[in-house]
Amino acid sequence: MTSVMKRSFARSGLTAWQFALLIGQLLLLTLVIRQFQIESRAFLRLAILAFLGFAVHAWLPLRYRLPFFLGLSFAGIGVVLGLVNGVWLVALGLILIGICHLPVKMPLRVALLLLVAAALAFLRADWLHAPWPSAIWPILGSMFMFRLIVYLYDLAHDRAPVSPTRTLAYFFLLPNVCFPLFPVVDFKTFRRSHYDSAPYPIYQIGVDWIARGVLHLILYRLVYYHFTLAPSEVASPATLAQYMLSTFLLYLRVSGQFHVIVGLLHLFGFNLPETHHRYYLASSFTDFWRRINIYWKDFMLKVVYYPLYFTLRRWGTTQALVLSTLFVFLATWLLHSYQWFWLRGSFPVLWQDLFFWGILGVLVVLNALWEAKRGRERSLRRSAWTAGGVASLTLRTGATFAFLCLLWSLWTAESVSTWLALWGGAAERPTPATGWLPTVLLATILVGSTTTSAAPMTRPAPRAVCPSTRAITLASPLALAALGVPDVYSRLGASTANFIHSLRSGGLSRLDNALLERGYYEDLLRVDRFNSQLWEVYMNKPLDWLDAFEASGLERFTDDFAQKELVPSFRSLTRHGTITTNRWGMRDRDYDHQPAPGTYRVALLGASTVMGWGVGDEQTFESLLEARLNHDHANGPFAKYEILNFGVPNYSPLQQLGIFDKVLSFGPHAVFYVATRNEVLQSARYLAAVTRKGIPVPNPLLRAVVERAHIDAATGETVALRRLEPFLLEILSATYDDIVKRCRERSVLPVWIFLPHRQDTAPVDAARIATAAGFTVLTLEGYEQGHDPATLRLAEWDDHPNALGHRLIAGALYRRLTEHVPELFVDQRKDRTASHR
Questions:
Q1: How many C-beta neighbours within 10 Å does residue 389 have?
Q2: DSSP for residue 274
Q3: Of 348-362, 657-671, 750-764, minimum mean pLDDT range
Q4: Where does 145-186 have alpha helices with state H?
Q5: For residue range 626-637, what is the model confidence (pLDDT) as tens digits?
Q6: Label partner for 522 (CA 20 to 30 A): which of 105, 108, 133, 197?
Q7: Which residues of 213-229 are buried (b: 16+ CB within 10 A; e: fewer)?
Q8: Chain centroid to CA 145: how far?
């Protein structure tokens, strides 16, 4: 090692091994964040920027590190929000900070800030139009609504010199641009914690907390997708308990985000304390208050409790404690509404908020009085662990957890009446017991009995790096990164694959609207709901845009030849509109299994465009075409037209064949097979994939192709495709022939429709094969009607048609059908009842 390198390592406070270990862990975390789509696409970009910045920051001389962090924070604002939004955000922030340092007395500065805040409030409430985009409101509010209070308090009470760089770094904290809900970082702690101990332990604790936060966020998805219930599904004491428990466990997302945030700050030397500490294992209500959202508790103690307590102490210590604590919870209620206003633009005053904070405040006061008396009694003797003590702590932990689940469900309910209705619904009808619930509760209580303490929490002393913790931090992201690869988890069976797939999802569950109609933290964390402009900024050009339906939870794996299908009775809010599936797993309105007399039913097969990726439920060309057929031919030979949408994203021709029994079971009179480019290659690739996975091929001609190509489960993908190349046309021909044959057997009309993308032309081979198989062949080339193709697609990087594109497709398909498919408009059918039995 050269002398320059030795000086660099000495300056950084790291050894080469320590630095390499940190970078390795950050690379693993980047992969996990990418694979599991943690939070938003913007967070992935910010995390990469922060990790790269850390690699530079660690080697800088100490005097340059804080300015570098400030520069990186400004860069993060630009990377996430863009130049225009970023300039507005920084400019408004500088005005607010500047008022804090005007050369006038503090009361006048406070008054000026209140006047500016009032003006901004008028703009935030949209009573006056703001000249800047609405995307910056949540971030501006997050940065200044509480930090200004802390900053002014410290300016008034702390005589330490103020550094402009440190002040700007405090307000424009690097992770804040991606997290509107942000912990209330104390300015004095922020200032004093900067490299207050050796660098490596600070950095490693930061990595540990980022990994812990990511794990919390994945566990949140586990609860969210698999355990949450809609209020309408509460039908027994067991489901009521499940509802309340899962609602409380959703707070994992808050603790996960806060651990990630503070962990990122540790990477730049800020040795901040934990934001949460085993809050589910609290043994009393005061213990819970100490453990959950510790930064908020410290903030309220600093600016509310202590000033009021010392003012009221002349009336008596107990009276001061009671009144000060109750006022803290009153202020917490009001400040949570204040936070809601700056993030969402409204100021809610709801009964469930009042009940939650009021009940919790009273319980904390009673608990504090009891502990104060008990503490005095025990102060003369040393406590020791006994069987009775363990049993007592176990019961208190379980009782506290259970009551908090109850109280939390009230807070997150849409209304008090909705919450009360849960109790009536719990006795309406018996349901199977929820087997996992007692296990989770028992595990919580038992773990709590051995790991929690009722003693007041204090900030732990700086700790040495523990090898076992390092092993966990390394092993967990490594395992998650491996499991997050689709080619890995799709081989683990349908149930396991569906489970992992749901954990990778960043979308909304099918119960989202019912479950989270109103929940304080849930609503503040869902930027896609309360600020669409900011969400669009966060999601700009997502790295896996074309795989976004995989992230929505819309699909699930099956153990049959098709391998996947849409989830029945699913509902998701996307940036493009609502996606809803019916009870049969179709993106469509609900239909009876068999058509009513006089109804002409069409089964529509295809992939993502047919399913309608990128548009709302009523904007798909299938929905528009069905409406037009029923409108234009209301007095025709058929009482009604029904088009059943069997489209599934990324479905290949062989998968259409795999679900064809299901399609025919719905009694269609016609099948519309929508083909796009690469029909031939898609078929071969899918046949290779299912063969490698050992999935039985139902079609005998396709099985013969597999045997003649000499491929099996041990054949690699590249080799398998190479061996299948001579059989490409034969594979598609066998698929089309099978579909047409089965249609003819049931007197079903088969129609093959080519839907181009951009300037595609009809694939000659596929069209010829479709004609030979017996399809009625239609092409929709020229459906654009002179429109610029760029105006018909979702984005520059996504060829899926937008709402206008779907309208043009529906119109073109309607014209082709009237010209070439007379069966659709003339009743030439015979009685097919027997053939459908």
A1: 12
A2: P
A3: 750-764
A4: 147-157, 164-171
A5: 999 999 998 889
A6: 133
A7: bbbbbbbbbebbbebbb
A8: 25
Hey, how many other C-beta atoms are within 10 angstroms of the C-beta on 159? 7
Residues 701-718: b if buried by 16+ CB within 10 A, e if exposed:
ebeebbeebebeeebeee
| Per-residue pLDDT band at 223 (split at 50, 70, 90) | confident
Asked whether the predicted pLDDT for residue 536 surpasses 50, the reply is yes
Q: What is the pLDDT of residues 579-611, one digit of tens each?
A: 999 999 999 999 999 999 999 999 999 999 999
Are 586 and 644 in contact, with CB atoms under 8 Å apart?
Answer: yes
Could you tell me what percentage of the chain is helix, strand and coil, using 3-state DSSP and rounding each to the nearest 5?
65, 5, 30
Buried-state track 616-642, b at ≥16 Cβ within 10 A, e below 16: bbebbbbbbbbeebbeebeebebebbb
Q: What is the DSSP string of 232-266?
A: GG--SHHHHHHHHHHHHHTTHHHHHHHHHHHHHHH
Range ranked top by mean pLDDT from 224-238, 391-405, 550-564: 391-405
Let me know: does 335 contact 347? Beta carbons within 8 Å.
no
In Å, how far are 79, 453, 564, 566, 670 from 601, measured between CA atoms? 51, 66, 24, 21, 7
Average of per-residue pLDDT across 681-700: 92
Give ∠ CA 8-14-20 in degrees, rounded to 5: 100
Across-strand partners of 641? Answer: 600
| Distance from C-alpha of 680 to C-alpha of 584, rounded to nearest angstrom | 29
Please list, in sequence order, all residues whose beta carbon lies within 8 angstroms of the beta carbon of residue 25, skipping any fewer than 6 positions away: 207, 211, 473, 474, 477
Cβ proximity of 5 and 14 under 8 Å? no
Give the separation between CA 211 and CA 229, rounded to whole angstroms.
28
CA 168/CA 165 separation, integer angstroms: 5
Q: Tell me the per-residue pLDDT of 473-532, one tens digit each, with 9 for 90 and over.
A: 677 777 777 777 777 777 777 677 767 776 776 554 544 444 444 466 666 666 655 565
In angstroms, the CA 342 to CA 140 distance is: 8
DSSP 752: E
- How many angstroms separate the most distant Cα atoms in the chain? 98
The answer to whether the beta carbons of residues 749 and 743 sit under 8 Å apart is yes
Distance CA(42)–CA(9), nearest Å, equals 32
Q: What is the pTM of this model?
A: 0.74
Instruction: Give all domains of the chain, ordered by start, each with its CATH number.
Output: 3-280+418-449+467-489 (no CATH), 545-828 (3.40.50.1110)
HSE value, Cβ hemisphere, 13 Å, CA-based, for 757? 18
Contacts with 219 (C-beta within 8 Å, 6 or more apart), sequence order? 252, 256
Q: Is the dihedral of CA 791, 795, 798, 803 positive or negative?
A: negative
Cα of first residue to Cα of last residue in the chain, in angstroms, is 82
| CB-based contact 602:672 (threshold 8 Å) | yes
In 355-488, the DSSP E strands lie at none
Instruction: Assess contact for 681 and 763: CB atoms under 8 A.
Output: no
Helix/strand/coil for 577:
strand
Within 13 Å of residue 343, how many CA atoms lie on the same side as its CB?
Answer: 27
Q: Mind spelling out the 3-state secondary structure of 698-719? A: CCHHHHHHHHHHCCCCCCCHHH
Q: Quote the CA–CA distance of 51 and 48 in Å, as a whole number.
A: 5
Is residue 608 a contact partner of residue 649, using CB atoms and an 8 Å limit?
Answer: yes
Asked if the model's pLDDT at residue 564 lies above 70, the reply is yes
Q: Nearest to residue 35, comparing CAs of 224, 221, 247, 254?
A: 221
Report the relative pairing of strands 798-801 and 793-795 from DSSP bridges. Answer: antiparallel
CA-CA distance, 22 to 26, in Å (whole number)?
6
Residue 97: both structure tokens together: 């900070």
Confirm if 636 and 595 have CB atoms less than 8 A apart: no
pLDDT for residue 100:
95
Sequence length of the chain is 837
